[in-house]
Amino acid sequence: LNVDASPQNARKIPDKMFGIFFEEINHAGAGGLWAELVSNRGFEAGGPNTPSNIDPWLIIGNESSIIVGTDRTSCFEQNPVALRMEVLCDSKGTNNCPSGGVGVYNPGYWGMNIERRRVYKVGLHIRSSDAVSLTVSLTSSDGLQKLASHTITASKKQFAKWTKIEFHLKSSQTNTNSRLQLTTSKSGVIWLDQVSVMPSDTYMGHGFRKDLASMLANLKPQFLKFPGGNYAMGNYLRNAFRWSETVGPWEERPGHFNDAWGYWTDDGLGFFEFLQLAEDLGASPVWVVNDGSSNLHGLLGASQNEEVSTATIASLVKDVVDGIEFARGGPKTTWGSVRAAMGHPQPFNLDYVSIGNQECWMLYYRGNYQKFYSAIKAAYPDINVVSSCDKSTISPSNPADLYDVHVYTSSSDMFSRTSMFDNTTRSGPKAIVSEYAVTGKDAGKGTLVAALAEAAFLVGLERNSDVVEMASCAPLFVNDNDRRWSPDAIVFNSWQNYGCPNYWMLHFFKDSCGATFHPSNIQISSYNQLVASAITWQNSKDKSTYLKIKLVNFGNQAVNLSISVSGLDEGIKSSGSKKTVLTSSGPLDENSFQQPQKVAPVSSPVDNANEQMGVLVDPYSLTSFDLLL
Ligand code: AHR
């Protein structure tokens, strides 16, 4: 392997080269990154896959002791459904309530993870014309073991109007499969709405589950694309993500059915929270907006798609410009003031807006795109507008700052796509490869070989970073209890998580953003399974500079490689260098909750690092050498 590290042949890799794409798929947000523990907090859930609009709430008691239903008497205009509990039993009457009382419980998203000594913030809205004694408790999944509880009492009429109650619960024990119970032994009618339980300590205090947000932060993502994907579009337009319905107080958000992936979301993780997450991660937000079309084309064929015509797209265009004002406008602007009222008077740095997801072929896409482009540029000339069409369609009369590329393919094809951009025209807009993944048989639920193929693809993107500006894998998260898409980079349930091999693979690329790329070439006969890249990067903590050489061996042979580095101003220091290897005993190996680190990087010091080095590259491996300069 010859590495030419001379300054005259070096090139800067874009600052935002590697980021993440967050889609509300697989319960990535609702029941995942968003730390709300109650599923369907507002009793609004609806849609073809939801058995009732109180699902997954269940009843404690029988018909002779309690009748539970919903009506539309909530104090929230946008989400009018409230839970109505008519308690027929009473501890003082002839119809005695069972011990522990009657009521409802919520199992959360496949069990709530309640931890000993951790404090949980509870909020709920209540109304009743009767005297109330309602016990709110966190319990084991069968309700028998109490972890924490609080009783709300009120005299007759005290809750005649909707009243918001907030308090904290501190758990005495840990139980990863807990539930929230609301029980009473007093007859009367109680209405409840917007029942929420959240850990009081979330990532940066902004509502994100700490362990999962930390996994994202560890990738040092330079951009965050959100909210989808198909989720952004909806299978039907009425179920698309509409930013303005996801901002303001959580209780007032209507929520919506995520029909692309088959579940309800309360939209606690809304437009504001996505922008906040990007800020917390030090990443640039890339907002994907609905361009007036739905996903139906993917499901039912082109003839049945839903699409807003260019003649009638104006209100959606205005909605997007308003959304940018929400993110960037001063605190006195119409929408900036809404953001300021949510606790963020400073504008967010929103510099990228992606028009649609993957609808270039649709009848009105190009006409609609032009309307979005002109309106955004007129109001915010510096915003980078991303087209869903390929580079060949972009011209001065159909301009775009970036064009979006999605690549889903087998591992062998992904490996060969290391050269996908080698012959791309060097002028014109650059690509954002915002979704890429190995899919199919050898991808499993996240195999080593899939990660290696993706690594080879990324090596190709680094080499072509004069025509590729940004890249992110897809999907990012899966809640193991509701896997709608495989593979995904991070797997979790209510209390555990692990990174798939491709999550660990991404760590090999996190120093590349803004680094210096150096050309390299491999001379090897009769083995075409090896690709390599070389960069120099600076450790921001101690300011040390490293030459990082990455080697992807996609084949089953170990390779003895001589590395020869030329063109360095100063040589490689003999100590202070390290080697990191991602490999395993078999190419189809995966991580799991039982073996979360089966396929994970292992680092060791490199002795006698030098401009001329002989190294042994393991079969099916990704290796990096960080050589101290
Ligand atoms: O990443 C999963 C899906 O794949 C996305 O929602 C869509 O954009 C793509 O087809």
UniProtKB/TrEMBL annotation:
Native organism: Oryza glumipatula
Record key words, sorted: Extracellular matrix, Glycoprotein, Hydrolase, Secreted, Signal
A biological process term (GO) from this entry: polysaccharide catabolic process
Catalysed transformations (reactions): Hydrolysis of terminal non-reducing alpha-L-arabinofuranoside residues in alpha-L-arabinosides
Cell location: Secreted, Extracellular space, Extracellular matrix
SMART domains noted in UniProt: Alpha-L-AF_C (SM00813)
EC number: 3.2.1.55
Region (Disordered): 573-603
InterPro entries xref list: Alpha-L-AF_C, ASD1_cat, GH, Glyco_hydro_b, Glycosyl_Hydrolase_51
Entry-linked Gene3D superfamilies: Glycosidases (3.20.20.80), Golgi alpha-mannosidase II (2.60.40.1180)
GO molecular function: alpha-L-arabinofuranosidase activity
Family: Belongs to the glycosyl hydrolase 51 family.
Protein's recorded name: non-reducing end alpha-L-arabinofuranosidase
Pfam families: Alpha-L-AF_C, ASD1_dom
Biased amino acid composition, Polar residues: 574-597
Annotated Alpha-L-arabinofuranosidase C-terminal domain residues: 434-621
